[in-house]
């Protein structure tokens, strides 16, 4: 029983009516006790759809989903009991009720026994740092506080699984950091499994044991967070060198031969060379090479790889022209 995953998604595809392409296409993933998995992908990748299917809110077109061993189509009610979810957009809170009234309401809805509920509410208010605001109406809450309360409400019945869709979306930097810290604390709580989605690498990096990268409904990569980051050099800078004039195809081919991973993007009167993960010494060699080839260097810069570029490298697509 212990080795059984809390969530098992097998070959799941979701086609929305009239949609041209499936929103989720043959995805398989599993989530084990105590594990946090981040579903990472750009807008429209299929993250929310996947989470909604796991939550039993959207039916898969094909494939199966098991939550604590229960088939989410055939035995949805049994699976749902183990899930707490905070989905994108829906805050699941009543604006005119206080924090405490909201938690009581949702606790009753989840059939949490009265005495247990009282303790659970105190515990969660403390965990999320909301004790001082428990009598305040939710409409007066900042977005960060609302989001914390929504997560607290999702945890009232002490579910084994927590689903968080874009938990820090729309929060300012400070509120997002605070929430990250609280989620990190939750992940340390034994045996809870967390499935969260994000289109931001840093959030996934900070909270997730494993990252599942999804793009156009399909798995692009799935690995331990650390291995994924190492593999794709997301921490490394991209060197950008602007050269005067259009480079010949011959010269570009030579460059790519000598300096692996470099791309050349032609512009009207210049050529932009992009070289991810290049070291200082390699860069000097490149500059020497360009000098030998009588290429006039207009500008040299370095910047961090964006998540989009990581996706592009993961999906093996061309860098877009700018
Ligand atoms: N109810 C729906 N009906 C039809 N198509 C939908 C529906 N919900 C989502 N889609 C489509 O399915 C695809 C995946 O959407 P989904 O919301 O799962 O992506 P996402 O990864 O959560 O994106 P975002 O980062 O923007 O939240 C998109 O092309 C979207 O337009
Ligand atoms: Mg979404």
Blueprint (SSEs and pairs):
Elements: E1 7-14, E2 24-31, E3 36-40, H1 47-54, E4 62-67, E5 70-71, H2 76-80, E6 83-86, H3 99-109, H4 114-127, H5 143-154, E7 161-165, H6 173-188, E8 193-198, H7 201-207, E9 210-215, E10 218-224, H8 225-232, E11 237-244, H9 249-258, E12 263-266, E13 270-276, H10 280-292, E14 297-304, H11 307-315
Parallel strand pairs: 3-8, 3-9, 6-7, 7-8
Antiparallel strand pairs: 1-2, 1-4, 4-5, 9-10, 11-13, 11-14, 12-13
Helix pairs in contact: 3-4, 3-5, 5-6
The structure holds adenosine-5'-triphosphate and magnesium ion.
Magnesium ion binds at residues 47-48, 88, 165.
Brief write-up:
Helices cover 35% and strands 26% of the residues. It is α/β, with parallel strands linked by helices and 322 residues long.
Describe this structure in words.
With 322 residues, the chain is an alpha/beta fold. The protein has two domains: 7-230, P-loop containing nucleotide triphosphate hydrolases (Rossmann fold, 3-Layer(aba) Sandwich), CATH 3.40.50.300; 237-304, Ribosomal protein S10 (Alpha-Beta Plaits, 2-Layer Sandwich). Helix content is 35%, strand content 26%. The protein has eleven helices and 14 strands. Strands 6-7-8-3-9-10 form a six-stranded mixed sheet, sandwiched between helices. Strand 4 and strand 5 (70-71) form a beta hairpin. Helix 3 (99-109) crosses helix 4 (114-127), helix 3 (99-109) runs parallel beside helix 5 and helix 5 (143-154) packs parallel to helix 6. The chain is elongated, with a radius of gyration of 24 Å. The N and C termini lie far apart (53 Å). The relative contact order is 0.13. Residues 318-322 have low confidence and may be disordered.
């Amino acid at each position: 029983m212990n080795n059984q995953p809390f969530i098992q998604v097998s070959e799941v595809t979701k086609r929305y009516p009239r949609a041209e392409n499936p929103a989720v296409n043959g995805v398989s993933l599993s989530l084990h006790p105590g594990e946090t998995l981040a579903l990472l992908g750009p807008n429209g990748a299929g993250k929310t759809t996947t989470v909604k299917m796991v939550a039993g809110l959207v039916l898969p077109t094909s494939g199966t989903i098991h939550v604590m061993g229960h088939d989410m189509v055939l035995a949805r009610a049994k699976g749902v009991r183990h899930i707490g979810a905070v989905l994108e957009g829906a805050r699941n809170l009543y604006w005119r009720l206080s924090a405490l009234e909201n938690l009581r309401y949702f606790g009753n809805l989840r059939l949490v026994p009265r005495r247990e509920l009282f303790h659970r509410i105190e515990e969660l208010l403390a965990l999320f740092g909301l004790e001082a605001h428990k009598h305040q109406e939710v409409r007066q809450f900042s977005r960060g506080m609302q989001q914390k309360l929504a997560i607290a409400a999702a945890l009232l019945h002490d579910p084994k699984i927590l689903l968080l869709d874009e938990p820090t979306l729309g929060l300012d930097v400070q509120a997002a950091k605070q929430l990250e810290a609280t989620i990190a604390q939750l992940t340390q709580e034994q045996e809870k499994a967390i499935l969260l989605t994000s289109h931001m690498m840093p959030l996934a990096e900070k909270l997730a044991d494993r990252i599942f990268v999804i793009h156009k409904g399909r798995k692009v990569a799935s690995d331990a967070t650390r291995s994924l980051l190492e593999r794709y050099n997301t921490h490394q800078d991209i060197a950008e060198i602007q050269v005067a004039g259009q480079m010949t195809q011959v010269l570009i081919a030579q460059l790519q031969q000598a300096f692996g991973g470099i791309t050349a993007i032609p512009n009207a009167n210049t050529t932009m060379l992009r070289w991810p993960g290049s070291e200082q010494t390699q860069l000097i060699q490149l500059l020497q090479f360009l000098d030998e080839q009588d290429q006039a260097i207009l500008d040299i810069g370095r910047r961090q790889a964006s998540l989009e570029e990581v996706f592009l490298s993961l999906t093996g697509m061309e860098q877009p022209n700018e």
